[in-house]
Amino acid sequence: AQKITQTQPGMFVQEKEAVTLDCTYDTSDQSYGLFWYKQPSSGEMIFLIYQGSYDEQNATEGRYSLNFQKARKSANLVISASQLGDSAMYFCAMRGETSYDKVIFGPGTSLSVIP
Amino acid sequence: ETGVTQTPRHLVMGMTNKKSLKCEQHLGHNAMYWYKQSAKKPLELMFVYNFKEQTENNSVPSRFSPECPNSSHLFLHLHTLQPEDSALYLCASSQDGDRWAKNIQYFGAGTRLSVL
pLDDT tens across A86-101, in order? Predict the structure, then answer.
């Protein structure tokens, strides 16, 4: 069975600092995709970044980067230069080849950016 | 502006009511999804539609009835709900194809449902 673990229920970061949100996953699939989503208090889930299991380089999208360590099955999200608008819930998710029409989500991490 | 629109944004209903949630995607995608998000629980997949055909029913009670008349619209019909059904219901869409692992799901803002 596939599973996503996010061990940090809540995180605080000073504005303009960088922060790392942890994500570990469990799968027996050889091919899979990893995603990060942001959910502000308004409720919408906003796609941030994607990493494929066979991608050799870590994904980056603006201030977001993904620290992908395949052997350790971890896909941590790094947000550089935090902004007040980054305060939200962050979800790590995965889609694997044996259940390709399902995306499994982790429990989420609540990030608060302090001025 | 989101490419996935959900209405209504908020809904309060009694246990004997019948109501429907609507989702519309403007992204030209071929797959649509319903998720339930309860407090302190991970996002739960409810239904998957691919090319208007239901491909997944994740053991959802029959008081939730999905309908997908075309690739752009998805409904969730609700009847005789229970208080524990109170949650945020999210709709998503994706363009599914050969590169399935990279098929990103785009979400709407959700309908916050309260069952009294």
Answer: 999 999 999 887 776 6
Smallest CA–CA distance, residue B14 to chain A, in Å, is: 23
Q: Label residue B13 exposed, middle or buried (CB < 10 Å: 0-12, 13-18, 19+).
A: middle
Q: Which amino acid is at B83?
A: P
User: How do beta strands A24-26 and A19-21 pair?
Assistant: unpaired
Three-point CA angle B22, B25, B27, nearest 5°: 180
Residues 6+ apart with CB under 8 A from A74: A22, A23, A24, A25, A67, A68
Cα R_g (chain A), whole angstroms: 14
Report residue B59 as tokens.
């053991």
The average pLDDT across B42-49 equals 90
Distance (Å) from the alpha carbon of B69 to chain A's nearest alpha carbon: 20
